[in-house]
Amino acid sequence: MMTSRRQFLAGAAASGLATAGLPGCSEADMPSYQDAVAATWRLPSSGTEGAERLRALVAAATLAANSHNTQPWHFRIEDRRIAILPDTVRRCPVVDPDDHHLYASLGCAAENLAIAARALGLAPHIAYDEAADAVTVDLEPGTAENSPLFAAIPERQSTRADYDGKPVPSEDIDRLLATAGSDDVDLLLVTEPGRMETILEYVVAGNTVQMEDAAFMAELKEWIRFSEGEAVKAGDGLFAGASGNPTLPRWVASPLFDLFVNAESENDKYSSQIRNSAGLVLFTANGTGPRYWVEAGRSVQRFALQGTALGLRNA
Questions:
Q1: How many CB atoms lie within 10 A of CB 1?
Q2: Same domain, residue pair 224 and 141
Q3: Which of 104, 229, 281, 302 sits in a 20 to 30 Å window from 315, CA-based?
Q4: pLDDT in tens, 12-62
């Protein structure tokens, strides 16, 4: 059985929970944005068993971080295995021509799934199957683990606002690095302002190239959901309101986007966010190709969840 987050939302709609991701629904029939969020961002019940438990694990996996919120995955549910496959229809060929964002997104989903599996009494074993081009999660009976990372799954978010600049306690830094690190991924923490400024220079240079590329801007705009109704109906993409931008009908917002979203405005935003941050973390995979990109995604997801559990905003 193959499924995705949008199919979960469609199934919830049939039960009166949400209608996100249902292209045939009119906005008058759709729930509010808040109701759709509540129906989506929730933990699976610890009492689930059998096929229901496997579907609950997939639901938790779909709440993982992913590029542009494209949700570029399919899930194949088997008896004791869940395979996560790339959905190449939802790839972003301009910003991600080699698909490393896509495979990192699969890694994020696999990590969520594994954390949820442990919480529901299963022992997960994750691997990248090159022949099948899939991330496989084999599941065996285990002992339930009540991890703070599991509780953080529905709370995690990417903060697109300024940070408070307060230093992170050393014990929290140690916890973050220990949780996120692995044999295949190295983490480099940068907190010294001068080194952060150097990284910022690269961020600004790279972002300028992107923002001046018409193809990049068209692809980005395609994934932006300018209003609550559009976000609920699509069930994917980047909701404008989550970035602190006004929510407007697409016919109003689209020309405003073209007019005001540019390299200068975005670079100012990134500069402010980085300069008000306590630090930056660079994730470096010890190889290239899907297997390593998946591992990098797993590491990033653990970092984000641990940060959330510690009350630290991150993006």
A1: 11
A2: no
A3: 229
A4: 443 333 333 444 455 557 789 999 998 888 887 766 788 899 999 999 999
Domain hosting 237: range is: 193-275
Same-domain status, 158 and 230: no
- Residue 182 belongs to some domain of the structure: yes
Q: Give the chain's domain count.
A: 2
Q: What is the 3-state secondary structure (H, E, C) of the chain?
A: CEECHHHHHHHHHHCCCCCCCCCCCCHHHCCCHHHHHHHHCCCCCCCCCHHHHHHHHHHHHCCCCCHHHCCCEEEEECCCEEEEEECHHHCCCCCCCCCHHHHHHHHHHHHHHHHHHHHCCEEEEEEEECCCCEEEEEEEECCCCCCHHHHHCCCCCCCCCCCCCCCCCHHHHHHHHHHHCCCCEEEEEECCHHHHHHHHHHHHHHHHHHHCCHHHHHHHHHCEECCHHHHHHHCCCEEHHHHCCCCCCHHHHHHHHHHHCCHHHHHHHHHHHHHCCCCEEEEEECCCCHHHHHHHHHHHHHHHHHHHHCCCCCC
* Residue 2 resides in a domain: no
Whether 29 maps to a domain, the answer reads no
